[in-house]
Amino acid sequence: MNRHLAVAAVVVLCLGLFCNFSTLNNQAQAQGKAAPAEQKITVLSPMGTPPPIKLKTMPPRLSALEGKTIYFVDQGYLGSDNLLKEMTAWFEKNQPKTNVVFKRLPRGVRGTPAAQDPAAELWAEIKQKADAMVMGTGH
Q: Is 22 exposed, middle or buried (0-12, 13-18, 19+ CB in 10 A)?
């Protein structure tokens, strides 16, 4: 009931303002004054122009996991380590001939230039030793 009264009050106020504005505008025109001209403004986007996206092809899928090395890399998002540890436990139990390695990225990796990447050693290790990688990126 109170909500309906509040909505009704807002509607009445809006109608009152609209009618009052129309009346003032009509009075100004009747007195020979022109209604205020609409001003146009130019707005620029602060986003700029994004660089073109460079598409990369997916690597070929492994035919089998037996005898392969899979790295599970945690980026540090809340809960992703739990998921990756569950996945490594599953592989250790169900795929015992698959080598599973769990690694955590060093702090400050996201958004740093490649020349200053604190995880450069980890990336080199993965390129050299891994057959596949699963990364926990969070939401």
A: exposed
